[in-house]
Amino acid sequence: MPRIFEISIQFLVACVGIIFVGAIPSLFNTVNGSFVNSTSYYETIKEIIQGISQYKSLTYDWNGVERDLFPFLFEPVFYSITILICALLLAYLVSTLFTFLTMLLPAKHRGKSKLFIYLFESLPDILIVFLMQFFIIYFYKKTNILLLNFVSLQEERAYLLPILCLAIFPTIQLYRLSMLLFEQELTKDYVYLAKMKGVSYYSVLLVHILRNATVSLFFQSKKAVWFMLSNLFILEYLFNIFGITRFLTQYMTPTIFTIGLLLFFIPIFILYNIAESIVKNVVSGGESL
């Protein structure tokens, strides 16, 4: 099956699934004591499809005033996607760097490094966000220097601190996984062959093990995205970010909810497939021992 056809099928199935999920609340608009209302569910699906096909005419209620949904909806979607993608890239780069540095340590010291990371992982997400915000406020009061915007206020949007907070736990997850992948690669025959050829341990790590572990780590990072999505709403609330999750909770209609999810899903789907192609080409084009 051609790759483009496979991706197209995945995309269509995902979009249809999002439409079905967006209509689920109407399934439980029960009448006459029935458990589910399939008629309402099918009617809502039709309403969603009609809304997608006539998206230019969609409106939402803003304090009693009807406003056009588009192009306004692009703004919160782009804001949330920017934070999510940047946090994921940061987590991927930092976890890989930490893994590489840890693998350069003597074997007896690696366990201590991993133990510290695991203990840090046990801290609640909200506690870390509060501590970072508190530190910025405390530093500002002492020095009159604002290190970072810790809340979004009208046109002054917070980016760096939300990205850092959202990236913390995915970094730990990817670090744990990459450590496992690196240690597994160390036991493979090509590593022993490289040592017999006189290739330095540093070169084996940087050129060969890193390249071989990259693909597995990339695919596993998709799980980190789900974890980040579960924290995105809390993050947007704590930083007063008017992103897509806050918008959808304020304007929770099946059509707007579904369209919002689709607008959030489509860029991530495209970016992931582009990144997947790049990663496979880089790895397959690498030199072998």
Automatic annotation (TrEMBL):
<feature type="transmembrane region" description="Helical">
    <location>
        <begin position="115"/>
        <end position="139"/>
    </location>
</feature>
<feature type="domain" description="ABC transmembrane type-1">
    <location>
        <begin position="77"/>
        <end position="275"/>
    </location>
</feature>
<comment type="similarity">
    <text>Belongs to the binding-protein-dependent transport system permease family.</text>
</comment>
<feature type="transmembrane region" description="Helical">
    <location>
        <begin position="7"/>
        <end position="28"/>
    </location>
</feature>
<protein>
    <submittedName>
        <fullName>ABC transporter permease subunit</fullName>
    </submittedName>
</protein>
<feature type="transmembrane region" description="Helical">
    <location>
        <begin position="159"/>
        <end position="178"/>
    </location>
</feature>
<keyword id="KW-1003">Cell membrane</keyword>
<keyword id="KW-0472">Membrane</keyword>
<feature type="transmembrane region" description="Helical">
    <location>
        <begin position="77"/>
        <end position="103"/>
    </location>
</feature>
<keyword id="KW-1133">Transmembrane helix</keyword>
<dbReference type="InterPro" id="IPR035906">
    <property type="entry name" value="MetI-like_sf"/>
</dbReference>
<dbReference type="Pfam" id="PF00528">
    <property type="entry name" value="BPD_transp_1"/>
</dbReference>
<feature type="transmembrane region" description="Helical">
    <location>
        <begin position="256"/>
        <end position="275"/>
    </location>
</feature>
<feature type="transmembrane region" description="Helical">
    <location>
        <begin position="225"/>
        <end position="244"/>
    </location>
</feature>
<keyword id="KW-0812">Transmembrane</keyword>
<feature type="transmembrane region" description="Helical">
    <location>
        <begin position="199"/>
        <end position="219"/>
    </location>
</feature>
<keyword id="KW-0813">Transport</keyword>
<dbReference type="InterPro" id="IPR000515">
    <property type="entry name" value="MetI-like"/>
</dbReference>
